[in-house]
Amino acid sequence: xxxxxxxxxxxxxxxxxxxxxxxxxxxxxxxxxxxxxxxxxxxxxxxxxxxxxxxxxxxxxxxxxxxxxxxxxxxxxxxxxxxxxxxxxxxxxxxxxxxxxxxxxxxxxxxxxxxxxxxxxxxxxxxxxxxxxxxxxxxxxxxxxxxxxxxxxxxxxxxxxxxxxxxxxxxxxxxxxxxxxxxxxxxxxxxxxxxxxxxxxxxxxxxxxxxxxxxxxxxxxxxxxxxxxxxxxxxxxxxxxxxxxxxxxxxxxxxxxxxxxxxxxxxxxxxxxxxxxxxxxxxxxxxxxxxxxxxxxxxxxxxxxxxxxxxxxxxxxxxxxxxxxxxxxxxxxxxxxxxxxxxxxxxxxxxxxxxxxxxxxxxxxxxxxxxxxxxxxxxxxxxxxxxxxxxxxxxxxxxxxxxxxxxxxxxxxxxxxxxxxxxxxxxxxxxxxxxxxxxxxxxxxxxxxxxxxxxxxxxxxxxxxxxxxxxxxxxxxxxxxxxxxxxxxxxx
Length: 492
Prior knowledge:
By secondary structure, the protein is mainly alpha-helical. It contains 26 helices and 9 strands. A hairpin with a 2-residue loop joins strand 8 (324-325) and strand 9.
């Protein structure tokens, strides 16, 4: 191979990497694709590219194994956990060896009413970080997941690269800072409550995409949902849904999010039919898009580990086929865990190697009679006071957790249990966001003194919409001459 190949970053999409190869080598799009895949258009498929064995051979294994490429750098990792393990393996083998035109039908995407056109999305602040760290901006795989609409790192809405041309008709690449022309559309997020909900969905989505293919049994999931709904008073002991309470709880939890692109399935939660939970939590559940499962999981479980533990507890030897845990075949995982503990690994390390959470590892260690040293982290009063001070100053919850040496789940629970602290934190976060957005918008005006408001709004990540919704008086005071050009019209 004569192409100059860049590195494949850990969270970079394969499509983004192919676009970078094209930019570095300057050949035609079809020539780049043929050189990489032996096919003229495969490299232009941004969600489910095929011929991965050919790619691995032509790049001499520089990108890793085809399975790792498929599960970590394409959208297959997001869809396959809900597919039966045999069918999932069949899909992977088809994608390794060739292409699979009927793939979206096999994955149930076409019947889900979620939509099969997976728009390219990203965070402008992440793009800046990418250029500083790697020298180029790229599409992050977690941002491309259909249920991810905000950046978890910067707590801001993603922007969608809107191109009216369908992917199969494109003859080039849409890249974050180069490539084909596109229109940037910022995902609408109204207020901190919506941002909190969408951030949780994005976090759970990333964790969901890390699960092994075929690792979630829909019937086991249905029982998990039924038990959780019952514990919250939303279902009877026999699994019948309390529709009035369920509809009220769902609307309250996801208030306003049904207007966010991709979350229209929440509009099915009406007085006539519970929609979201009705299809997934019945005794014989219907197939469901991962986004629908993730919305339900987010509503029922405060932490991802809590969901995994609930799934593990619901498993039984009488389930169809080989018992399947949330992260792979259970018997194999337990043996892997046991061997690592005996070899001297900690419970946490052995759990990670076996592909389960630490809570499950502790349970297995007790069942197997393994000796281990407890290393529980104590959230002392001093640490709590430090955490409160940092949170009241508006610090990121993840950064606070790292500062005081506890998990982010602990910090999230602290915020949930102390409403006054959470309110102070949200206010401080708002002021931080406001100052950051004001500063960024002032810089845009200084750099582009002759642009109108309409032209300024075409600049990716300009922040105008956030200021219009949350800081309109400041916007009016700082744009007196340009404000008159747009009048009182609604920017939406």
